[in-house]
């Protein structure tokens, strides 16, 4: 899900292009009022379909870390905003789009603007690839809450425990250490199904 064609040019003004392709536009960071990220996302997604902006606004994203936890024997799915107060927008930014986004309710501005009335800088290509790459990582095979796993490395090597939570490439495992349940967090490649 990475965008390898995003440009790292420092000047964000781009020409108007009618095609809606994953390779169009650059990513910008929009600052929101605390707790208003979803409200801003909904408003900007409404602009995605408007005829006025459909050829310049392409995607609105709130990075979220999702995890599955087992509490009292019940699996629950939870999500936490990775960057509270920020929404990521992929667009062809020109003066009209910039003004429309800034006037969206609950938007306080763009991150990367050096002056109040200047267009912001896009996110560097490397940062976008890292961000989108992290968001698209699948949960490792067999690492599902409740499954038995063996620790492969570290001070708990060869201990067997139960998966409690999976967070992209990290796993929380409940181990029995000296007769007490101990939660251990480790990289997913350091555990294997028992």
CATH level-four homologous superfamily name of the largest domain? NusG, N-terminal domain
Shape: elongated
Portion of residues in beta strands equals 35-45%
CATH architecture of the largest domain: 2-Layer Sandwich
Distance between the termini: 32 Å
The CATH class of the largest domain is identified as: Alpha Beta
Question: Structural class given helices, strands, pairing?
Answer: alpha+beta
What does the model show?
- Helix content is 16%, strand content 36%.
- The protein has helices spanning 37-48, 95-102, 125-135, and strands at residues 26-32, 57-61, 64-71, 74-81, 86-91, 107-110, 148-151, 160-167, 170-177, 180-187, 191-193.
- It starts with 25 loop residues before the first strand and ends with a strand.
- Residues 1-21 have low confidence and may be disordered.
Fold blueprint:
Blueprint lengths: L25 E7 L4 H12 L8 E5 L2 E8 L2 E8 L4 E6 L3 H8 L4 E4 L14 H11 L12 E4 L8 E8 L2 E8 L2 E8 L3 E3 L1
Antiparallel strand pairs: 1-5, 1-6, 2-5, 3-4, 3-8, 7-8, 7-11, 8-9, 9-10
Brief overview:
With 194 residues, this protein is α+β, with helices and mostly antiparallel strands.
Key terms:
194 residues; alpha+beta; Alpha-Beta Plaits; SH3 type barrels; 2 domains; 7-stranded antiparallel sheet; 16% helix
């Amino acid at each position: 899900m990475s965008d390898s064609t995003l440009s790292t040019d420092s000047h964000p003004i781009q020409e108007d292009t009618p095609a809606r392709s994953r390779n169009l536009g650059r990513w910008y960071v929009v600052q929101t009022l605390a707790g208003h990220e979803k409200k801003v996302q909904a408003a900007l997604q409404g602009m995605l379909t408007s005829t006025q902006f459909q050829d310049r606004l392409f995607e609105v994203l709130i990075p979220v870390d999702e995890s599955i936890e087992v509490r009292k024997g019940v699996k629950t799915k939870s999500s936490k905003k990775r960057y509270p107060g920020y929404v990521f927008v992929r667009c062809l930014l020109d003066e009209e789009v910039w003004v429309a986004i800034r006037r969206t309710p609950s938007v306080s501005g763009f991150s990367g603007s050096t002056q109040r009335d200047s267009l912001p800088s896009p996110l560097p290509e490397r940062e976008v690839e890292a961000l989108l790459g992290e968001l698209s990582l699948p949960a490792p095979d067999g690492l599902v809450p409740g499954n038995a796993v063996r620790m492969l490395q570290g001070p708990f090597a060869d201990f067997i425990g139960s998966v409690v939570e999976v967070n992209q490439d990290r796993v929380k495992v409940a181990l029995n250490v000296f007769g007490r349940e101990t939660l251990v967090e480790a990289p997913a490649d350091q555990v294997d199904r028992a």
